Protein backbone atom coordinates (compact mmCIF):
# COMPACT_ATOMS: atom_id res chain seq x y z
CA UNK A 1 0.00 0.00 0.00
CA UNK A 2 2.84 2.40 -0.79
CA UNK A 3 1.71 3.97 -4.09
CA UNK A 4 2.11 7.77 -3.63
CA UNK A 5 -0.55 8.61 -6.24
CA UNK A 6 -3.99 8.94 -4.68
CA UNK A 7 -6.30 6.23 -5.99
CA UNK A 8 -8.75 6.67 -3.17
CA UNK A 9 -11.04 9.43 -1.94
CA UNK A 10 -11.66 9.55 1.80
CA UNK A 11 -15.22 10.75 2.38
CA UNK A 12 -14.34 12.33 5.72
CA UNK A 13 -12.87 15.52 7.13
CA UNK A 14 -11.53 13.61 10.14
CA UNK A 15 -7.81 14.18 10.65
CA UNK A 16 -7.67 10.89 12.58
CA UNK A 17 -8.96 8.92 9.60
CA UNK A 18 -6.41 10.62 7.35
CA UNK A 19 -3.63 9.75 9.82
CA UNK A 20 -4.77 6.13 9.99
CA UNK A 21 -4.78 5.77 6.19
CA UNK A 22 -1.31 7.34 6.12
CA UNK A 23 -0.23 4.84 8.77
CA UNK A 24 -0.97 1.92 6.44
CA UNK A 25 0.48 3.71 3.41
CA UNK A 26 -2.70 4.46 1.46
CA UNK A 27 -2.36 7.63 -0.60
CA UNK A 28 -5.68 9.44 -0.69
CA UNK A 29 -7.43 12.70 -1.34
CA UNK A 30 -10.22 14.06 0.85
CA UNK A 31 -13.77 14.99 -0.11
CA UNK A 32 -15.98 15.09 3.00
CA UNK A 33 -19.53 13.82 2.72
CA UNK A 34 -22.24 16.16 3.91
CA UNK A 35 -25.15 13.99 4.98
CA UNK A 36 -27.47 14.16 8.00
CA UNK A 37 -26.36 11.79 10.75
CA UNK A 38 -29.63 11.10 12.51
CA UNK A 39 -30.79 7.67 13.68
CA UNK A 40 -34.18 6.57 12.40
CA UNK A 41 -36.80 5.66 15.02
CA UNK A 42 -36.08 2.14 16.27
CA UNK A 43 -32.96 1.77 14.11
CA UNK A 44 -30.46 -0.56 15.82
CA UNK A 45 -26.98 0.96 16.35
CA UNK A 46 -25.29 -1.58 14.03
CA UNK A 47 -27.73 -0.79 11.21
CA UNK A 48 -27.31 2.93 11.83
CA UNK A 49 -23.50 3.00 11.54
CA UNK A 50 -23.62 0.80 8.42
CA UNK A 51 -26.24 3.06 6.84
CA UNK A 52 -24.37 6.28 7.61
CA UNK A 53 -21.05 4.93 6.27
CA UNK A 54 -22.81 3.71 3.11
CA UNK A 55 -24.63 7.03 2.63
CA UNK A 56 -21.33 8.92 3.02
CA UNK A 57 -19.54 6.78 0.44
CA UNK A 58 -22.49 7.00 -1.97
CA UNK A 59 -22.74 10.79 -1.68
CA UNK A 60 -19.06 11.22 -2.53
CA UNK A 61 -19.13 8.48 -5.21
CA UNK A 62 -21.94 10.36 -6.96
CA UNK A 63 -20.29 13.78 -6.47
CA UNK A 64 -16.90 12.90 -7.96
CA UNK A 65 -16.06 12.20 -11.58
CA UNK A 66 -12.53 10.81 -11.23
CA UNK A 67 -13.57 7.17 -10.97
CA UNK A 68 -11.40 6.78 -7.87
CA UNK A 69 -12.47 4.39 -5.13
CA UNK A 70 -14.35 6.05 -2.25
CA UNK A 71 -13.89 5.06 1.40
CA UNK A 72 -16.19 6.24 4.18
CA UNK A 73 -16.64 5.32 7.83
CA UNK A 74 -18.89 6.04 10.76
CA UNK A 75 -18.02 5.47 14.40
CA UNK A 76 -20.48 5.59 17.28
CA UNK A 77 -20.31 5.05 21.03
CA UNK A 78 -23.22 2.93 22.29
CA UNK A 79 -24.32 2.40 25.88
CA UNK A 80 -27.43 0.46 26.88
CA UNK A 81 -28.48 0.42 23.21
CA UNK A 82 -28.32 4.22 22.95
CA UNK A 83 -26.21 5.94 20.28
CA UNK A 84 -24.35 8.82 21.91
CA UNK A 85 -23.23 10.81 18.86
CA UNK A 86 -21.09 13.93 19.29
CA UNK A 87 -21.62 16.37 22.14
CA UNK A 88 -23.48 19.58 21.33
CA UNK A 89 -22.15 21.51 24.33
CA UNK A 90 -20.56 21.06 27.75
CA UNK A 91 -23.76 19.83 29.40
CA UNK A 92 -24.23 17.18 26.72
CA UNK A 93 -20.59 16.05 26.97
CA UNK A 94 -20.75 15.96 30.77
CA UNK A 95 -23.92 13.82 30.58
CA UNK A 96 -22.20 11.39 28.18
CA UNK A 97 -19.01 11.10 30.20
CA UNK A 98 -20.93 10.69 33.47
CA UNK A 99 -22.90 7.85 31.88
CA UNK A 100 -19.69 6.19 30.61
CA UNK A 101 -17.98 6.63 33.99
CA UNK A 102 -17.14 3.30 35.64
CA UNK A 103 -18.92 1.34 32.91
CA UNK A 104 -18.26 -0.67 29.79
CA UNK A 105 -19.62 0.53 26.44
CA UNK A 106 -19.43 -0.52 22.81
CA UNK A 107 -17.80 1.35 19.95
CA UNK A 108 -19.11 0.48 16.49
CA UNK A 109 -17.13 1.46 13.40
CA UNK A 110 -18.59 0.76 9.97
CA UNK A 111 -16.49 1.06 6.83
CA UNK A 112 -17.93 1.45 3.34
CA UNK A 113 -15.94 1.16 0.09
CA UNK A 114 -17.22 1.90 -3.40
CA UNK A 115 -15.20 1.14 -6.51
CA UNK A 116 -15.90 0.07 -10.07
CA UNK A 117 -19.65 0.24 -9.47
CA UNK A 118 -19.52 -2.13 -6.51
CA UNK A 119 -20.01 -1.65 -2.77
CA UNK A 120 -18.39 -3.46 0.13
CA UNK A 121 -18.73 -2.89 3.84
CA UNK A 122 -17.39 -4.10 7.16
CA UNK A 123 -18.24 -3.56 10.81
CA UNK A 124 -15.84 -3.44 13.75
CA UNK A 125 -17.10 -3.85 17.30
CA UNK A 126 -14.94 -2.90 20.26
CA UNK A 127 -15.66 -2.80 23.96
CA UNK A 128 -14.22 -0.02 26.12
CA UNK A 129 -14.35 0.19 29.91
CA UNK A 130 -13.97 3.55 31.63
CA UNK A 131 -12.76 4.03 35.17
CA UNK A 132 -14.91 6.19 37.42
CA UNK A 133 -14.70 9.90 36.54
CA UNK A 134 -15.24 12.84 38.85
CA UNK A 135 -17.22 15.93 37.83
CA UNK A 136 -13.99 17.96 38.11
CA UNK A 137 -12.20 15.59 35.70
CA UNK A 138 -15.09 15.84 33.24
CA UNK A 139 -15.06 19.65 33.39
CA UNK A 140 -11.27 19.80 32.95
CA UNK A 141 -11.45 17.38 30.03
CA UNK A 142 -14.10 19.50 28.31
CA UNK A 143 -11.97 22.61 28.91
CA UNK A 144 -9.09 20.90 27.05
CA UNK A 145 -11.21 21.07 23.88
CA UNK A 146 -10.62 17.42 23.05
CA UNK A 147 -14.18 16.06 23.52
CA UNK A 148 -15.68 18.47 21.00
CA UNK A 149 -16.62 16.73 17.77
CA UNK A 150 -15.81 13.26 19.14
CA UNK A 151 -18.27 10.37 19.32
CA UNK A 152 -19.07 9.75 22.97
CA UNK A 153 -17.20 12.96 23.92
CA UNK A 154 -13.76 11.34 24.15
CA UNK A 155 -10.67 10.57 22.10
CA UNK A 156 -8.84 7.32 22.88
CA UNK A 157 -5.73 8.60 21.08
CA UNK A 158 -5.57 11.75 23.22
CA UNK A 159 -6.12 12.78 26.81
CA UNK A 160 -9.19 10.56 27.00
CA UNK A 161 -6.86 7.53 27.10
CA UNK A 162 -6.31 8.10 30.80
CA UNK A 163 -9.96 7.25 31.49
CA UNK A 164 -9.80 3.84 29.79
CA UNK A 165 -9.31 0.86 32.07
CA UNK A 166 -9.69 -1.81 29.36
CA UNK A 167 -10.30 -2.16 25.64
CA UNK A 168 -11.21 -5.29 23.71
CA UNK A 169 -11.30 -5.03 19.94
CA UNK A 170 -9.83 -2.51 17.54
CA UNK A 171 -7.92 0.50 18.89
CA UNK A 172 -8.00 2.10 15.42
CA UNK A 173 -11.72 1.32 15.24
CA UNK A 174 -12.30 3.31 18.42
CA UNK A 175 -10.25 6.12 16.85
CA UNK A 176 -12.60 6.10 13.86
CA UNK A 177 -11.24 3.76 11.18
CA UNK A 178 -10.64 0.07 11.94
CA UNK A 179 -7.47 -0.65 9.97
CA UNK A 180 -7.81 -4.44 9.72
CA UNK A 181 -11.27 -4.20 8.18
CA UNK A 182 -10.26 -1.23 6.02
CA UNK A 183 -7.20 -3.04 4.64
CA UNK A 184 -9.31 -6.13 3.93
CA UNK A 185 -11.79 -4.06 1.92
CA UNK A 186 -9.06 -2.15 0.08
CA UNK A 187 -7.43 -5.46 -0.86
CA UNK A 188 -10.53 -6.27 -2.91
CA UNK A 189 -9.74 -3.40 -5.29
CA UNK A 190 -5.98 -3.84 -5.59
CA UNK A 191 -4.60 -1.90 -2.64
CA UNK A 192 -2.11 -4.19 -1.05
From TrEMBL:
Its EC number is 3.6.1.9. The active site is at 74 (proton acceptor). Its main location: cytoplasm. One of its GO terms (cellular component) is cytoplasm. Signal peptide: none annotated. The keyword Hydrolase applies. GO terms for biological process: nucleotide metabolic process. It is an enzyme of class 3 (hydrolase). Its cofactor is a divalent metal cation. GO terms for molecular function: dTTP diphosphatase activity; UTP diphosphatase activity. It catalyses: dTTP + H2O = dTMP + diphosphate + H(+); UTP + H2O = UMP + diphosphate + H(+). InterPro entries: ITPase-like_fam, Maf-like. The record marks 16, 75, 157 as: Important for substrate specificity. Keywords: Cytoplasm, Hydrolase, Nucleotide metabolism. It is found in: Cytoplasm. The keyword DNA-binding does not apply. Belongs to the Maf family. YhdE subfamily. Nucleoside triphosphate pyrophosphatase that hydrolyzes dTTP and UTP. May have a dual role in cell division arrest and in preventing the incorporation of modified nucleotides into cellular nucleic acids. NCBIfam families: maf (TIGR00172). This is dTTP/UTP pyrophosphatase. It comes from Methylomagnum ishizawai. The lineage of its organism: Bacteria, Pseudomonadati, Pseudomonadota, Gammaproteobacteria, Methylococcales.
Amino acid sequence: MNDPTPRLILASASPRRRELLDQIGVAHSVLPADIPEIPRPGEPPEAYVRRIAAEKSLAVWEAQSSGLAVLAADTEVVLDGEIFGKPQNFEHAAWMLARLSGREHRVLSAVSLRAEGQHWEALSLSTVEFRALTPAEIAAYWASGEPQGKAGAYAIQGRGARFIRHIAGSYSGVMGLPLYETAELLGRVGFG
